[in-house]
Amino acid sequence: MINSILRFVLIFILLILLQILLFNNIQFSGYVNPYVYLMFILLLPVEIPSWVLLLLSFATGLVMDIFSGSAGMHTSATVLAGFVRPYVLRLISPRDGYETGSDPSMVTYGFRWFFTYVLLIVLVHHTTLFYLEVFRFADFFRTMLRVLLSSLFTVTFILLIEYYRRGK
Questions:
Q1: How far apart are CA 34 and CA 149, in angstroms?
Q2: Could you tell me which residue, 166 or 18, shows the higher pLDDT?
Q3: Which of 30, 102, 131, 145 is least buried, going by the fewest C-beta atoms within 10 A?
Q4: Please, where are the H alpha helices in the chain?
Q5: For residue 168, is pLDDT > 60?
Q6: Would you state the torsion angle of the CA atoms of residues 111, 112, 115, 118, taken in this order, to the nearest 10 degrees?
Q7: pLDDT one-digit tens code per residue, 128-144
Q8: What's the CA gap between 73 and 124, in Å, rounded?
């Protein structure tokens, strides 16, 4: 139990540092902003209680808002991503269900499952974040392009990190 908590604290710190020091500085024409800190919520155990998931989602978004200077946008998007996560997990659950004590990973459930899982959560997060940032529908298609391009890069970086993390 303590080992697991320590592992997730380390993952949290590492992903926040990567986001602040590296990924926040990646911007292509204002259209691509990868947000890999979202991986922390994606890697939490499948059977985590909903209230703990929402609390951790809130804390993750709040830390990002503090370091990004955004007024609650990351918190809102991250809490919504944490809220829809159980529904996404139910939607894409394997035929035999999830193994007790398992973490959602590429190794455990395969590339296709992990890709679908990451893509759905990232799309929810990015759609919320970018439309809250713009807060109008006048630039609907421009914002949708930002959502799609940023989601593509975020998913790519998360898959690369997962691939590296699992050593395969």
A1: 9
A2: 18
A3: 30
A4: 2-21, 39-43, 50-68, 73-91, 106-109, 111-134, 140-166
A5: no
A6: -110
A7: 999 999 888 788 999 99
A8: 13
